[in-house]
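Quick log. Single chain, no ligands specified.
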Amino acid sequence: MSSFINTSKKDLKVELLNETISDNTQKVKKILDYATENKINLELNEKNEDGYYSLLYATYLIFSRNSYFLKKFNEINKNKGIENEIKDHVIFEIENVLMKIELEEERKEKEKIRKESEIIKIELEEERKENEKIRKENEIIKIELEEERKENEKIRKENEIIKIELEKEKMEKKKIRKHLKLLRIEKEKKENKKLEKKNYKVKKIQIKKVIIRPY
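-> predicted structure:
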């Protein structure tokens, strides 16, 4: 215990609190033994500036399952006659702090769930908007396809009409060619007939000349 010689009670309390928080069991045991043997009252039940029994709370909270520390607690507070009162108060303090911690954790968990829910809502809304965008794009594509189909149908009908007109034109041309052919034949016949008449007349004149010519 020589390491604690000339250590003030205040410093000893600070060291005990630090070692308790650090879960240094052996060091805490040495400090408590030193305080007991040297009749140093560490005033575990002294409130801090926030109104908590910080030293007693830390000691009890971390080492409450170890009977050694409860025994030392009893020894330190034996002469004050407030053991049960302080112990009960500390238990209530601990339960209160633990419930506050649990409540805070519950609030944090609730807040986490709320934020996750908000994120999910945002993602769902974005997905809904994206789906709506896709739906509108599909509608536009459908309209464009329908317009294209109608345009193609219109072109097809126009082509059919053009085909019919072309067929009529071909038939008309064929008819005209046939008529022209008939006209040429008729003309040729007339010309041949005219030529025959002319030849006949010439021949007849020649015959007359031969008959009339004296011997």
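Helices lie at 9-21, 25-37, 54-63, 67-77, 83-212.
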